[in-house]
C-alpha cells in the first residue's frame, strides 16, 4: 500500500511500519510527516496516541538520517507540548513536568545551547509553543545556530511568540541563508506582521533574485492584510512564471487569512487589483487552483474570484473550470462555483448547463447547481426545456430545483429556494 493510501485511510500501523523498517530515508521522513498530519485522528478509539508518540521519540533520537530525525521532531511538535517535553526529558535527562511556564521556558532556552542538534531543535519548537517572551533574546541569538534545521525552528518559534524585536536579526538572513531557512524566516516576518517586518518582505519582493521574490510573495499571503494586496498584484506581472503563480496563490490565501473585520476590504481590494491585471496572469492560475489544489479554502476562494474577474477572452476557460466544480465534494465550493457562473453569462453557457441538467449520468448535485445558474441566466430556451425536464424526471430533488428555476424565469409561481 502506498503512503498516500495509508494517509487517506489513517492507517497508523502501516505508517509506523514504514517509519521503523523502511530502508529508504525519504520514505521514513515522509511517514513521520504524515503521522504528524494525522495527529487529530490519533485517539485511543482509532489508534493509541501514546504508541505513536513513543515511536516518534525513538526515531527522533536514533534514526541515522538527520532529515528523518528532524521530521520526527516536527511531528512531535504537532502532537503538542507534552509530546515535545517527553522527548526533551528523554534526551536531556531534565525533568520539566509540573513546572511553571515561565520557568519551563528558561529550562528549554538552555537546550538551545545543547551539543545535540535534535535537542536544540526540540527546545526551539517547545519555546514557540509555550509563547513566553522572557527568552526572546536567547532565540534571537540562536538564529545563528550552525545547524540549518535548528535555525528553521528558531525562526518558526519567533513567529509563533510574536517578538517584533527580532526583526533586525531575522532580516539579514533573508539574503544569506539557505533556501529552506529563508522560507521560515520570511514566514516568521509575516507572522510578526509589524511595519518593519512588512517592509522587509516588500523590499525582497522587488529583489533581482527570483528566489527571494518568490519567498516574499509566498510569505505575504500569510499576512491577511490589505497592505499586501498591491505588492502581490504587482507580482502578477513578474517576469518569472513561478513568481507569478506564487503571487496568485498568496492572493487566494489572503482571503482565508484576513480577519473578519477586514475581510470585506481585502476582498474588494483583491478584486479591484485583479481586474486591472493581465487577464491571462489572473485567470489561468485560479483555474489551476480549482483543477489541482486539494486545499478547501483555496478552492472556495478561487471559485469566488473567477466570477468577478474573468471576462472576454478567458471567460470560456473560467466557465470550464467552474462547471466541473459544480460537482465538488465540498458544498460551499460548489455553491461559489454556481454563483460565479451566474456572473459569467455568455459564450453558450445556457446550452452547456442545459446539457448537464438533462444528462442522467451526471452527478445530481452538479445538476442541482446547474439549475440554480439557469434560474439566474436562462431565457425562453431554458424555461421550455426545464419545464419539459421537471415533467419527466423521477428525482424529487431535481424536480423541486427545476420548479425553483422556473419560478425565477417566470414559468411557475410556486416553489422557491436556491440550493438543495
Task: Provide an overview of this structure.
The chain has 420 residues and is mainly alpha-helical. Helices cover 70% and strands 0% of the residues. It is globular and about 80 Å long. This is Phycocyanin alpha phycocyanobilin lyase-like.
- CA radius of gyration is 26 Å
Number of DSSP helical runs: 26
Amount of beta strand: under 5%
Biggest beta sheet attributes: none
The 3D shape can be described as globular
The CA-CA distance between the termini, in Å, is 38 Å
Mean pLDDT comes to: 89
Structural class: mainly alpha
SSE string, helices as H and strands as E: HHHHHHHHHHHHHHHHHHHHHHHHHH
Low-confidence stretches: 413-417
How many beta-strand segments?
0
State the helicity in percent bands.
over 70%
Short descriptors:
single chain; 420 residues; mainly alpha; 26 helices; 70% helix; lyase; oxidoreductase activity; ARM-type_fold
Brief rundown of the structure:
With 420 residues, the protein is mostly helical. It has a domain at 345-420.
Secondary structure elements and their pairing?
Blueprint (H helix, E strand, L loop, with lengths): L2 H6 L3 H10 L3 H13 L11 H14 L3 H13 L2 H12 L8 H11 L5 H14 L5 H7 L5 H14 L5 H4 L2 H4 L2 H14 L2 H10 L5 H11 L8 H7 L5 H17 L5 H14 L2 H14 L3 H14 L5 H11 L5 H11 L7 H9 L6 H14 L2 H13 L3 H13 L12
Helix pairs in contact: 2-3, 3-5, 4-5, 4-6, 5-6, 5-8, 6-8, 7-8, 8-10, 9-10, 10-13, 13-14, 13-15, 14-15, 15-17, 16-17, 17-19, 17-20, 19-20, 19-21, 20-22, 21-22, 22-24, 23-24, 23-25, 24-26, 25-26
Protein name: Phycocyanin alpha phycocyanobilin lyase-like
Pfam families: HEAT_2, HEAT_PBS
InterPro entries: ARM-like, ARM-type_fold, PBS_lyase_HEAT
